[in-house]
Amino acid sequence: MKNIFAVAGVVIKELYRRKDFYVLFIVTILICTMMAMVRIYNDANIVRYLKEISLDLIWLCSLVIAVTTTARQIPAERENRTLLPLLAKPLTRVQLIFGKFFGCWLACGLSLLCFYLFFGVLAATREHDWQPLNYLEAATMHWFMLGIIVSLALLGSIVFAAPSSNATICFVIIGGILFVGRHLDQQALNMPEPVRTILTVLYYAIPHLEFYDMRDLVIHNWPLVAGKYICLALLYACFYMAVFLIGACLSFRRKAVN
Amino acid sequence: MTAILRTDKLRVEYRSREIRQATKIALHGLDLEVGAGEVFGFLGPNGAGKTTTMNVLLGFVPPTSGSASLFGIDVRQPIARQRIGYLPELTYYYKFLTAEELLRFYSRIFGLSRTVADKRISELLKLVELEHAAKRPIKSYSKGMQQRVGLAQALVNDPDLLILDEPTSGLDPLGRMKVREIIQRLKNEGKTVFFSSHELGEVESVCDRVAIIHQGQLKAIGRVADITGSHASLEKAFLKIIGFETQPAS
Question: What is the pTM assigned to this prediction?
Fold first, then answer.
């Protein structure tokens, strides 16, 4: 485990020493703060729109951070040849993959913490009904969803040599799952065979990222979702993380490093 | 003589993904043995198979047939790399880390305790003369400084075997002299050094034995004096062995 944590530590250092996170965080703060300062029609419910837009920005920024940070990990190591002295140490390729995964996932978690803390402060200044447990539940689900995305991007970073192509493909897949994936079973009912079977299989095969979207819970201050459902969703996320990581390890094990 | 590094009928083929491209044979049954405490020079023209041999020894490339071992352990086992240090040719290190952080990261992978790592890092920074820049990010280093960081990381675990791939490549004369001094110092400490180089004068001055490889085949192996033989220098012997006859100046 020490090797995994050593690699993860370097990934986290990389995140906070690069400018990407700060740029996204400052842009989010600026947009949300400026919106919070404007009083539109003196409508008290306007705070819900503010919360919705802030959460949309947080989602977008977290996806960008997760995909771009992960997509460059292995290709950058190969391109800069830092992989050679690293693998010349008693470090297995599986440990390297897991180290990169935990590093990226924890880095995403830390950035998410900053975003949600800011969101909490913003929401607290605009409404009096402040529900931190809702935020915690939503952030936990969000973080596990990012775990699926990080493992997917890591698998992509081994298959595709260029980080840009990997990132683009990941964004297309994520967008497809979030906007189309949830309707595949309904669409399948209206299709002839074999398209119906293909769509049904696809519906059950893809990781349903929309399960982790708890923005409405936070926006409307709905009651917490029961713990057993949250636990099931987290286990579901762990299953997909394991599948993508096993794929990444198997693919990386066969690659010659030279 | 205890063999620290051994290859036995080592063969490496690179299969082309293109249909009409032939398979490239990088190594044809290479047999090598390097004993404890030796400084061993591994010579050959570009494309001879030196880096491929090192890549196999470090577990980066699997052999097509034959075997390679370090300290009697198959190179495919990660534990075989516990007692080695490796300096690649022209490598960049994590630019966002400082030299001290980089060495600490690698020392963690070798499982060094914090106290041992602190002492070792301090000694190495002094050895490669980077104490003054230890807390500066590597991105601000010159090429020579980066090569010295590379040398420090190769020594972080106090290795018994050091594998250096053209360690003086791209260095100025002063940098080359420093690297030679470090190799000499390691030799005096009883360490084994296996290194490739195109600087034959340098090889002549520090190596106990050398091997000359050409087109993936071992052409000569032995003590520097034996290989030089009747030739004026190792360079002349090297050129003759690889089949290149020098023309007398007109």
Answer: 0.85
